[in-house]
């Protein structure tokens, strides 16, 4: 499934994009309203729109979407609390409205419901399965409950199997853009290594690799 995401907060944009790509979705993300407006006819199955973005606002984009896609789900994600704008969004055909700040899980639930997507699990090797919905890592049929940060880190590694995940990537995704010391990140890595059988390899103070090996 292909999704268009319009969000001008770069950290939130990247977080949503990474999380949805983990589920196997193709996400075309934009921070400029004009860029999104110019590309809405590229065969999308779902639209995620912020309202207050540069150049062309989300309401105008929503109107154009409905000229081309009568039934395609559109979810507005916005910090606005102005009732008139919320009413206008629904009057022009948005399917749901999510007020910032929100948990990414909330957005996933709405997408799954509107697009009729079943719950999926991610297989990390023969003996390791990660359920991102429940934040559970199953190893050799043994359930390991993960903390929120552990779950987000597994998400990030799963998107980037066998690729470098930098300290900056981890800070932006797991700590949601807030500062995280190297020691805090290393402590989280140590905890995760105890819960999963895959190799997490450090890379010369740049970050880590999750190496997918056959078990």
From TrEMBL:
Residues 119-215 form the OmpR/PhoB-type domain. This is Response regulator transcription factor. It holds the Pfam family Trans_reg_C. Keywords: DNA-binding, Phosphoprotein, Transcription, Transcription regulation, Two-component regulatory system. The keyword Transcription regulation applies. The keyword Transcription applies. The lineage of its organism: Bacteria, Pseudomonadati, Campylobacterota, Epsilonproteobacteria, Campylobacterales. CDD domains: REC. The modification 4-aspartylphosphate is found at residue 50. Residues 2-115 form the Response regulatory domain.
